[in-house]
Design brief:
Length: 227
Amino acid sequence: MQAAYGSSQVLFGLDLRLQAGEVLTLLGRNGMGKSTTLRCLCGWMAPTAGRIRFCGEDVSGWSADRIARLGLGLVPEGRQIFPNLSVRENLTAFAANRCAAREPWTEERVFQLFPRLQERAANMGNQLSGGEQQMLAIARALMGNPRLLVLDEASEGLAPLVREEIWRCLDHLRAAGQTILVVDKYVRRLIRLADRHHILERGRMVWSGDSAELAAQPELWQRYLGV
Ligand SMILES: Nc1ncnc2c1ncn2[C@@H]1O[C@H](COP(=O)(O)OP(=O)(O)OP(=O)(O)O)[C@@H](O)[C@H]1O
């Protein structure tokens, strides 16, 4: 897949495959093309070349709404929850069992996953802390029962303990068989969470491998991720 903003090409021949039940990360420093890749996958922008297949369909050029209905649940950068709706209203606005999940997510189940949200159920989106907003953004995506959950910088701006709460939730989802694509920068924690990793550098995939391989090569972290 390739992508460009106007005449400026920013993705060059990315080849990305995700199997059902797998957790994959996209890593790279700022400006390397991670968000652009997600924008293409979610239908917010069309690739200039190549194809995107999802659930057996060629979704290249589909609208974001249509791709979401096929089963892609996005937890966007900056959370983007509805500030003037309550926690409960934010959740019900997204509820749908589009993929006929056998045990669909319900308000009760997401409250079990995030007990803090239950305590805040009647609060407006703009009354929540950053961590609670992030939990709500994940819970809201789950309410659509996505086949693929995509998280763009979900841990950004969160205190370490709250961040760990988010990671633990993702561990739990993984154990339950949820397919997940994560863009984030905490490589040590991502090695524990995910199965495989891709590193992007100036719009090109420069390294791909599993968690054991990434853990064994800290020189890669320094070279491509600056950690
Ligand atoms: N709306 C836009 N218009 C023009 N160029 C853009 C736009 N958004 C991103 N770019 C450029 O595309 C390249 C890739 O950006 P992208 O946001 O995909 O990177 P990223 O890896 O997600 O980084 P970050 O973590 O900062 O979001 C960068 O050179 C960036 O300046």
